[in-house]
Amino acid sequence: MKVKCLHGYFKFEEQYSGEASEFVSLFGLDLEPVDNYYTFSALAEAPDFALAGLEYLGAATTKTFAGRPWDVMRENNLVYNFNTGLVVPITSITQVVKLSLAGTYWVSPGLILPGSLTDEGTRVTDYAAWFSRSRGAGLWRYSEVTLD
Amino acid sequence: MTRVLPATCDANGKVTAEGVEVPAARVLTQGKQASSGILILDEDRADYVATNTTDIVTTIEKMIDLITANSDAITEIANTLTAIGTGMTGPTTAPPGTLPTSVVTITSKVTTMNATKTDLNTLKGALK
Predict the structure, then answer these.
(1) Contact indicator for A145, A124 with CB cutoff of 8 Å
(2) Which of A47, A57, A143, B120 has its CA 20 to 30 A from that of A85?
(3) How far apart are CA B56 and CA A18, in angstroms?
């Protein structure tokens, strides 16, 4: 299953039937179908606009913007923290992530929390990862990682 | 991606949508008095457009009033001229007895037209 993190918004795209439910049972994180992908339940109703001063999925916003949820989150520097189930400012993420190059992939233990800091002090804003039931919850393979 | 939200605008151009002020909104209509309308969001652009059909209805009503007053005044002038003409067939030069009343009527219609003109000027300065 391909996992896309788009500035803290998540898209899970099954390659094989059942991968989403496999992910849910393995991590205990609820997913809901949206269009042709799955996302975390807390993001399923993400509005396609934000008005500065009006909460966006419970988080304070600073910029009026209309677009796809991940564009709205990017413009307002928000990410989804799947550990707490909350949309939060990216600056509130203090977790440090270890990325190791393994051939043509980066690997990291577990799903990267968007906004995580690298050793260089940059933040992970976007990535594409692959979930495989054979690898379970162990090392994740990341084909693209964008740092800010 | 464009999003349209119901919104209001006060006489100072302050746009409100979803219960919050939207300082980024540009008022595309005149915005010189309070109105309700729509806020159009497209990426970081926010435009407000008033639902100004009441402006148009009022303008049309005032224009009808103006045309009616014009028509009445011109009709009264025609009637007066007809009466004067009728009186000019003989040796008398005396005006018809209805002349003072006709002049009052014409003057009244001019007053009505000027009042409507004032209303239209006021409306022009207070379009939504």
Answers:
(1) yes
(2) A143
(3) 59
- Tell me if chain A has a CB within 8 Å of the CB of B10: no
The end-to-end CA distance of chain B, in Å, is 27
Which structure tokens are listed for A78?
Answer: 């928000």
Q: How many contacts (CB atoms, under 8 Å) link A and B? A: 40
Which of A35, A48, A49 to mutate against chain B (most B CBs within 10 Å)? A49
The whole-model pTM stands at 0.77
Other beta carbons less than 10 A from residue A75's beta carbon: 19
Nearest to A90 by CA among A70, A114, A66, A126: A114
**pLDDT tens figures, B22-61:** 999 999 988 888 999 999 999 999 999 998 778 888 888 9
CA dist., res. A87 & res. B70, Å (int): 66
A85 vs B98: which has the higher pLDDT: A85
Predicted complex ipTM: 0.80
Strand B26-27 relative to strand B45-50, pairing: parallel
Residue of B nearest to A76 (CA): B44
